[in-house]
Amino acid sequence: MNELELKYGCNPNQKPSRIYMEDGSDLPIKVLCGRPGYINFLDAFNGWQLVSELKKATGLPAATSFKHVSPAGAAVGLPLSETLAKIYWVDDLGELSPLACAYARARGADRMSSFGDFISLSDVCDVDTARLIKREVSDGVIAPGYEPEALEILKQKKNGNYNVIQIDPDYVPAPLERKEVFGITFEQGRNELKIDEKFFANVVTDNKEIPESAKVDLAIAMITLKYTQSNSVCYVKDGQAIGIGAGQQSRIHCTRLAGQKADNWWLRQCPKVLELPFKDDIRRADRDNAIDLYIGDEYMDVLADGVWENTFKTKPEVFTREEKRTWLDKLTDVALGSDAFFPFGDNIERAHKSGVKYVAQPGGSVRDDNVIDACNKYQMAMAFTGLRLFHH
């Protein structure tokens, strides 16, 4: 099959629409279920590249949760702690496979953004992962294959219309890539940059110690950024992205946005949040929304009299600013990556508030000394990679 006609492009008024191989060869994918759209395929192909690189870099199964051509989460398949299993709403599923753990982490880091995601998996989708996917609100999944029982589970989703794509893991694209904007063709070499531990060898701060586990986290951050709309910043902890700031015009706004998401991830693990007395019949999406409001500045939107009764069995106490700061101060050893240089030390100041200890960024700003000084102030270790990772 050389081409696939799509229902429409980015929007319903954009017709005709298709994906095809310009050289006349067969498409490297098969649609096993559903009818994926234009944006679905953009998410699928970007996500597949991301998880493939994570697998190569770490040797672990990888998953990503994409929304609007940027990842909402990305992770490798490390075991889940009891607390993580609870905040990701998978504690009722028993012990999960490594691939299912990877998706639970990728989906769970920022559940609000992952709502209605497109999933990419580095490995053959197993039953554990399919069971997890089946109960989440999602548009589709791409993987190199599917266990027969897993495929049957996924085919039951959305009344048989869930998008399931199989991609040839041996497919290698041409070294040049093209796209058109306003009728004008752009051409560039593909970004084949390999990110591994050597990427972080140039440590420019007083603290030179970046342990192997932190190098893995930094690699996850930078590979994630390679497929995130720029400007972008990514916070990573223990093998998973915990905050991604994408598509902002200002670097500090990326750092703040990603930092707030990382903070929310950590706040959800506080006992005060874990013990919220939700009503038994509350839907998963409503529960996620309530938690997001409860830990944020607009907590009265869910705690006001006449409102809290819709969500909780009893009215929760306010999670005060002081309580939140005390809990956030316990978050440590976070890795941070940036797709381009930090122009000011304010990015480091904000990162410090979210427990960042390890930083990777290209370097090259006229104020590099100011950024290095800010890192030294907090005993952070920062590597200059010398390489930008813009993605548009």
Automatic annotation (TrEMBL):
<protein>
    <submittedName>
        <fullName>Phosphoribosylaminoimidazolecarboxamide formyltransferase</fullName>
        <ecNumber>2.1.2.3</ecNumber>
    </submittedName>
</protein>
<dbReference type="GO" id="GO:0004643">
    <property type="term" value="F:phosphoribosylaminoimidazolecarboxamide formyltransferase activity"/>
</dbReference>
<keyword id="KW-0808">Transferase</keyword>
<dbReference type="InterPro" id="IPR002695">
    <property type="entry name" value="PurH-like"/>
</dbReference>
<dbReference type="Pfam" id="PF01808">
    <property type="entry name" value="AICARFT_IMPCHas"/>
</dbReference>
